[in-house]
Amino acid sequence: MTVRHRRTTAVDSLDLDLGHGVHALLGPNGAGKSSLLRVLATAAAAVEGELKLLGRDPRRPAERLEIRRRLGYLPQTFGMFRGFTVRECVSYAAWLKDMPNRGALDAVERAVDQVGLTTRLDAKYRTLSGGMRRRVGIAQALVNNPQLLLLDEPTTGLDPAERDRFHALLRQLSATTTVVLATHLMEDVHACCDSALVLCTSRKVFLGSPQDLEEAGGYAGVVAGSARAGHAH
Fold first, then answer.
1. How far apart are CA 109 and CA 143, in angstroms?
2. Domains of the chain (ranges plus CATH)?
3. Which residue in 38, 107, 148, 212 has a CA-CA distance of 20 to 30 Å to 99?
4. What is the pLDDT of residues 6-41, one digit of tens each?
5. 100, 126, 209 from 92: Cα distances, Å
6. How many beta carbons lie within 10 A of that of residue 192, not counting itself?
7. DSSP H stretches of helix in 122-185
8. C-alpha distances in angstroms, 157 versus 130, 132, 181?
9. What is the pTM of this model?
10. Which residues contact 164 (CB under 8 A, 6 or more apart)?
């Protein structure tokens, strides 16, 4: 699959097959991480190649709608209506995903509990700290119990205790969910990820386990090796 923005190739000829588990997405700024997540979230289209999400083709409107009902997405820049309460923010996400009203109320409370914000359910979004707002973003991505969970820098702004809680949550989800976690923190990778994909200058330069990544020289070593190979060409 190839993704382009105007004349710039954001993701070049990526071949990827991900199953259940937590998959780290790593790479320097501008490597194509957010562009890839936007395509996987059906917020943007791949320009070339074939893409199947949850066994469905996102180019077909009816299948794209089914994919969106089954995925959760936290973009790198997340915002909500400032006058909404935490409950209303997550309820709005449930409504967007066509969740039945009967089950949505319980689902909202469950998702908010998963991120440790139950005591702030009726607090206004505008009164929350940056870390709490990030946790609301994670909750709205979780509310529909997604089969595909896409998270772009979700631990930014979380304190160490909340980061540990988040890692434990992802480990719990990994048995039944495909999680793609874009991060710049190796702590995230070692704490909860089953595999790591490294993009550099829009191309895949590594895919393997966190242990394999360390044996290949770590993230910095892989990126530096890719840069040297690029200069050699």
1. 9
2. 3-232 (3.40.50.300)
3. 38
4. 778 888 889 999 999 999 999 998 889 999 999 999
5. 12, 16, 36
6. 24
7. 130-142, 160-173
8. 6, 8, 15
9. 0.94
10. 191
Query: Which tokens sit at 28?
Result: 């320097």
Query: CA-CA-CA-CA torsion for 31, 36, 38, 40, nearest 10 degrees?
Result: -170
The residue type found at 63 is: E
Beta strand pairing status for 148-152 and 71-74?
Answer: parallel
pLDDT tens column, 153-169: 999 999 999 999 999 99
Q: What is the per-residue pLDDT for 70?
A: 97
Say which residue the tokens 């896409």 belong to.
150
Within a 10 A sphere around the Cβ of 222, how many other Cβ atoms? Answer: 20
Q: Dihedral through CA 166, CA 168, CA 169, CA 174, nearest 10?
A: 120
Q: From CA 149, how far away is CA 163, in angstroms rounded? A: 17
Residues 6+ apart with CB under 8 A from 103: none
User: Whole-number mean pLDDT of the chain?
Assistant: 93
Q: pLDDT tens for residues 120-143?
A: 999 999 999 999 999 999 999 999
Distance CA 153, CA 141 (A): 13
